[in-house]
Sequence to fold (355 residues):
Amino acid sequence: MSTTPADAATPGPRTSAPLVAVDDLVVQFKTRSGLTRRTSMLTAVDHVSLTIPQGRSLGLVGATGSGKSTVAQVITGMLTATSGVVTVAGHDLGTTAGAERSALQRLVQVVMQDPYSSLDPRMKVADIIAEPLTLGRPVRGAARRKVDDRVSELLRLVGLPAKSADRYPHQFSGGQRQRIAIARALAPSPQLIVLDEPTSALDVSVRAQILTLLKRLQDELAVTYLVISHDLVTVAYLASEVAVMHRGRIIEIGPTLAFYRRPRHPYTLELLASAPGAAASFLNNARPIGVAAESLPESACRYAYRCMLRTRLGDPARCVESDPELVSIGAEHRAACHFTDESAKMAEQINAPED
Fold:
């Protein structure tokens, strides 16, 4: 499949206990609508379960509003789950508090999408990188020298000269700023780094440099990544496993190579077909027109309203009678579709070379 780079991430050995475990996660938000400002509940994440083994990477993909960023915010402690259990390094985020909670949050760091807005323009690079270590408190003497040594080490790790420490963010390019953001995330020696669209704001040539850096850092430091991205090439390069979210649920999850070479859900096929370099003829398949999701019964598959596979199969009743569960279809590969074999056959259109 042309959307998969030759050096796509390959799975490493699994550990007995995952670093991150999400079990039956539900996140709901209160919304108000209409003249009466009636309150209703919006379900952003609907019974999501996943694991990330130590030292490996999970790519979380899907359209805007699918719930992937909400899952990441719960894992980082920015949001509280409505229900479900999230554990990081064996600690339940729902039950930890105080000093234990603070220590746990240091194990999880984030690299944001925009390197221009994620760095405080009033702070020098040395202070930006040291902030997770000093928590904004002044340090002096031996403690200051220790922090300075750590800053110099981190700058070297991300490929920046030591003299960068005395400069301000506006004196750097976008790629260099993202390197600074990565150095800041590495400062407290985290076990998990959440990469939220880490290259989407960068030029193509700079993206390749940042991806190479992230891959090297993972190999050297054995850090675990949760990669959130719309760029399927980024996910293919960094992630050893990919989960696809649609309307708050995971609809396919499996090893990266299986995801790209033999996807088993029609929504995954559509994502891959929309990527640059995919078989354009695939997008010419007939799909439902003018069908609103709300027009289908609640029992229907959540993708039935726009599923081209359902149209190709003659609108089978099963698609509207029951919403498919996430079931195993191979080694560590699961999909939520009643017709996974037919989806695999459709994938051949993407794999087939263009005439």
About this structure: DSSP finds twelve helices and twelve strands in the chain. Residues 262-351 form one domain. The first strand starts at residue 20 and ends at 33. The two ends are 15 Å apart (CA to CA).
